[in-house]
Write a structure and sequence with these properties.
about 80 residues, mainly alpha, 3-stranded antiparallel β-sheet, 3 helices, D-Maltodextrin-Binding Protein, domain 2
């Protein structure tokens, strides 16, 4: 190969490497966003006992999913 061809190929490889590394940049962590926000959002329907039930007298959800969500939130808050 000629010297100019080698340089052109080297430049092309460099440009491709730069674009590839920029595209593969790590996205922000969802966990970090949750901890920064300070709120863990957990969705549940309230109609699948014993995992979630809705208590109309107290307007709260009860059950295993609620307990796990609460424990997870406390653990995330404590670091």
């Amino acid at each position: 190969m000629k010297n100019s061809t080698v340089r052109a190929v080297a430049r092309l490889v460099l440009v491709v490497a730069l674009f590839t590394s920029a595209v593969q940049a790590e996205p922000p962590s969802r966990l970090e966003a949750i901890v920064k926000r300070g709120t863990l959002r957990v969705g549940m329907t309230g109609d699948y006992a014993p995992f979630t039930t809705f208590d109309p007298a107290t307007s709260t959800f009860l059950g295993f999913d609620v307990d796990m969500g609460t424990a997870s939130a406390r653990r995330l808050a404590s670091g």
